[in-house]
Design a protein that fits this description.
Blueprint lengths: L1 H22 L6 E3 L4 E3 L11 E3 L5 H9 L4 E3 L5 E5 L4 E4 L2 H9 L3 E3 L7 E5 L3 E4 L6 H11 L4 E6 L4 E3 L7 E3 L1 E3 H10 L7 H13 L5 E6 L3 H5 L5 E4 L4
Parallel strand pairs: 1-7, 2-8, 10-14, 13-15
Antiparallel strand pairs: 2-6, 3-5, 4-5, 8-9, 11-12, 14-15
Helix pairs in contact: 4-6, 5-6
């Protein structure tokens, strides 16, 4: 299902972006690559379904799934959905292919939906896993595999906020990694929304010297790169 969704949405993004580039007379090619995300077969998270997937479940459907032992839970909005495991990504199988395309000047759409998770079987090779990889963590892993200097995570919120949900809420424009980690330890970031984005940003910045990560609203990318909006997370030496 992840591979199907990645191909479907990737096609729509690829076509829309290619058309926009062509209209602007910008000679760049766009391609979608269905990348596989490697996970550990013995990752303990595989035994703990936590990621909501699929449609909202009716009471009748819930009863049917419960009788079969299917894990279910709230997605944070009060809606009950199926739950699946979300193991940690290790690396991207097709990273070298993506690297060659990028070096050739191609705009690559990859790691869609976190990428289909796989593990390596000594006898059979790559085997699929019934799970979903967090898309922000997968993006961070791919960016690290490509030795990128910048990771930008675009979302529906304009920044990471201090005291979110209170009258004193204020956007945080810049965070050093240690401060971002302290924010994560404090438990104030929502597990299903901003927390995985900050975790992915911290991981990416920690994995290489001089890196930075930016979390910003979808339409504010250029302004966020200039530091005018969004949240920028930097290493201790910057």
């Amino acid at each position: 299902l992840v591979a199907e969704t990645a191909g479907w949405i990737g096609y729509m993004i690829q076509q829309s972006l290619q058309n926009a580039l062509d209209r602007a007379a910008i000679g760049r090619d766009v391609v979608t690559v269905i990348t596989q995300t490697v996970v550990q077969a013995d990752d303990p998270l595989l035994a703990r379904p936590t990621k909501p997937i699929g449609h909202a479940l009716s009471p009748r459907r819930r009863d049917s799934l419960e009788a079969r032992g299917v894990a279910m839970g709230s997605d944070g909005s009060g809606t009950v959905r199926r739950l699946t495991a979300s193991p940690l990504p290790v690396h991207i199988v097709e990273k070298d292919i993506v690297r060659r395309l990028v070096e050739a000047g191609t705009i690559v759409i990859a790691a869609g939906g976190g990428g289909p998770p796989v593990y390596e079987d000594p006898a059979l090779g790559w085997e699929g896993v019934d799970a979903v990889v967090d898309k922000d963590r997968a993006a961070a892993i791919l960016a690290s595999d490509l030795e990128a200097e910048l990771l930008m995570i675009l979302t529906s919120v304009d920044a990471v906020y201090r005291d979110w949900g209170s009258p004193a809420a204020a956007p945080i424009r810049r965070l050093r990694v240690a401060d971002a980690e302290a924010l994560l330890r404090s438990g104030v970031l929502a597990a299903g929304s901003m927390r995985p984005k900050v975790e992915a940003a911290v991981q990416f910045v920690r994995d290489g010297r001089g890196r930075r990560a930016v979390i910003a609203e979808l339409r504010a990318g250029p302004a966020a790169l200039r530091g005018e909006t969004g949240t920028t997370i930097v290493s201790e030496d910057r």
